[in-house]
Every structure is written in C-alpha cells, then in structure tokens.
Design a protein that fits this description.
Oligomer: single chain
Structural class: alpha/beta
Strand content: 5-15%
Number of helices: 14
Helix content: 25-40%
Order of helices and strands: HHEEEEEEHEHEHHEHHHEHHEHEHH
Shape: globular
Distance between the termini: 60 Å
Largest sheet: 5 strands, parallel
Strand order of the largest sheet: 5-7-8-11-12
Radius of gyration: 21 Å
C-alpha cells in the first residue's frame, strides 16, 4: 500500500497567521467588502444582471456548472448586445467570477475542478482519480460539450469565444484536436494567449523546475487538488488585504510577483475580492502540464509522463505528440502585453507564427499592464474592451 506524502503548510499561510497575531487589533470589526463572499450569480444579481445556471455533462463524466447573463434591461425588457452567444472561459485556478468581480463599471463558464464544477457522474472529488486531468481534457471534452450545449439552447450555429490565459490554451487544444469545432466559432479572442511557456518570468520559473517531481508524485500517489480558498483563509485574507489595511501591499505584491508589476492598474478596493475568489480550485496536473512547456523549449504538446512505456501506450510514441496548431481555422484575435510574466511577448510571438487565421494582434506596450489586468486592470475598458467590442461588431451578423 502506498503512503501519501507528508503535507506541509504553505509558507504564505504561516506568514499570514503570524502577521495577524502580531497586529491582532485589526481583528476587531474589520471593514469587509461584501463582494468577497458572493458567488458569481450573486455578484451579477447584486449589480442588476439576471442570470441562469446550467449544468453540462462532458463525454468523460464531469458535470460543469455554467452561468449565463440573460441580458441587460432596456425599455422594460432584457436584451443581449449580441444575438449570438458569447462564451467566456477563465484561466488557471479561476472561475466565472473572474470576469465580473471588478464590478459592472469594469467589466461566464467554469472549468472542471473549480468550486462550481466539482461533480462527476461516478467519481467524487475525494477520489484521487477525479483530479487526474489537465487542460488537455478541458479542451477535448469540456469546451465541445459547452459549445454544443449553448448552440442547442440558443438555436444558433456559431458563438463568440473569449478566453483568458488557460481559457486560450483549452481553445488551442480543442481547435487542434477536434478541428470540426472551428466552424462553430465566429471569432476567438485571446486575452494573454498561453501555449508556449519557455520564457516565463518571475518566481514561478522556480516552480517549473519541480515538474518531473510533480509527475512522479502524481503517478505514484495521485495528482492532488489545488484547493479553493477555505473560509478561514478568506477571513485572514480579508483582514490583511482590505483597502484600509496597511498590510494590503503584501497581497498586491504577491499578485505582482506572479503576473508582473503593475501598481497603476490595480484598484485597491477590489484586492480583497480578488484574493477572496482566487484560487477557485484546480488539479495540480494543470500546473505540471504548463511546467513541461517551460522545461521543453518551443514545445506545445500532450502531457509527458516521463515514462516511455506509458507514453507509448497512450501516444504510440515515447515522446508526446505536438498539438496540431495548423488545424486552427477560426478567426483569432490576440490581446497581450509587454509586462505579462506568464504569457510573455516571446512566447506569444512564437504562437503568432503558428496561428494561420490571425485577424488582430494588439499588444499593450505600457510597462504597467500585467497578466491579470486583462480582467481587473483599471484601464482595461479603454485599452482592451473598446477594441474588442468594435471587432465583435464587425463579425456579428
């Protein structure tokens, strides 16, 4: 019988507890942002957007919860600005809340494994086999199921697709490996497009060096869950990260160390809301898969088990096959930035050479716009969304 590895407490949690103990006075009547504890539909309803919740079953049995904004009120009726559906797909360890937590003045879908999509027809999240997936399965199973469901419900033939980070990776997988779905996309918009990861910047590059160890652990003990934030963690985070706290800079600094330095773009009032919703849960296999791309220069391919026998049984080759990016035929628009440490300009430029139907490449040149600013940046509406809406109008029927 295999023994599970010892679980250690993350250093940042230890630091947070020590900090709270040191400044214990701030535990008294903290000024809590009410949006911290609201889920996606609750956030939308609070700001006047009616919603629907739908559940979609994938071919491999995962049950995805998706959230639909019905429309906006106009002359007493709800109206959608686009006759066609618009599918928004979040990034790694995120959720549909990522698209709306900045509020209505700044601004749905959920991937398997986050707090909204922890269901399966036969498996339980408590079982290790539940978490044996990466963004490969999300592209091959989740996106096709979601797109087919939307088209059937709306009686449309095509939809708009907007992805952020891993939301773009899933699309490259789907459009490469199930190319018939290209014909179902009006326009694919990629915020911080992620495929190649050899040029990551910042502390995350240190974690990529643990990729082989991560695969060994996963294959011997099961790929663990990267859990959503606990009630206690959210409570502590709200104290440390709230707008009026002198400790808030710790929270913003952590965000910058992951995504890129951009203090001019981060609205301090939504920091506790961001920290309260991220992470929303994921499988460690997703992180490991990205790590493999970092270790393998210029490669975007299937998951490598670092085991010739298993690779051969799965792929008929000891080396995992490359994703067939030449199969991507849907119109694609790129939005990226110079200051993105996760979807770096070098990696995005390489991806540009592999996508044949690029209709727009827009790079935010300022040094104060990072990976997450496409979602939460103060200047995102002016820099990104206005251009996107104009492009969508051109493609809308």
């Amino acid at each position: 019988m295999k023994v599970l590895p010892e679980i250690s407490i993350p250093l940042e949690i230890v630091f947070a507890v020590l900090l709270v103990n040191h400044v214990g006075a701030i535990l008294i009547n903290p000024e809590k942002n009410p949006d911290v504890d609201l889920k996606t539909t609750e956030l939308l309803n609070k700001y006047g957007y009616p919603t629907e919740t739908h559940h979609i079953v994938t071919e491999d049995g995962y049950i995805l919860e998706t959230h639909r904004i019905v429309g906006v009120m106009e002359n007493g009726n709800y109206r959608s600005p686009w006759r066609e559906g618009v599918l928004l797909v979040h990034g790694l360890a995120g959720s549909s809340a990522d698209w709306v937590l900045a509020g209505p003045e700044k601004g749905l879908g959920n991937s398997r494994g986050n707090l909204y999509s922890r269901n399966h027809t036969t498996l339980s999240p408590s079982e290790r086999s539940f978490w044996d997936f990466s963004w490969h399965e999300m592209g091959v199973f989740d996106l096709p199921a979601t797109i087919d469901y939307i088209l059937a419900e709306s009686c449309n033939e095509k939809i708009f697709y907007i992805g952020h980070s891993q939301g773009t990776t899933q699309f490259w997988v789907m459009a490469s490996e199930r190319p018939d779905y290209n014909s179902k996309i009006i326009l694919m918009t990629a915020f911080a497009p992620a495929a190649f990861t050899a040029n990551l910047r910042g502390p995350v590059t240190k974690l990529a060096k643990l990729t082989r160890i991560g695969v060994w652990v996963g294959e011997n003990f099961g790929y663990p869950e990267f859990t959503e934030r606990s009630t206690w963690a959210k409570f502590v985070s709200n104290i440390i990260c709230r707008d009026s706290s002198f400790t808030q800079f710790f929270c913003s600094t952590i965000i910058f160390l992951i995504a890129g330095w951009s203090p001019d773009e981060l609205n301090s009032t939504i920091v506790p809301v961001i920290v309260g919703h991220v992470s929303a849960g994921a499988s460690w296999k997703q992180f490991i898969h990205y790590g493999q791309g970092t270790m393998e220069q210029g490669r975007f391919r299937y998951f490598d088990y670092y085991n010739d026998e298993k690779n051969f049984n799965l792929y008929n080759s000891t080396v995992p096959p490359e994703y067939r990016l030449e199969n991507i035929r849907a119109p694609v628009a790129f939005f990226n930035s110079e200051n993105d440490w996760l979807a770096t300009p070098k990696d995005v430029s390489l991806l540009e050479t592999r996508i044949q139907n690029l209709v727009l490449v827009y790079r935010v040149a300022t040094n104060s716009f990072n990976h997450y600013d496409f979602l939460w940046g103060t200047n995102a509406p002016a820099l990104i969304y206005q251009r996107l809406f104009k492009l969508m109008e051109e493609y809308s029927t």
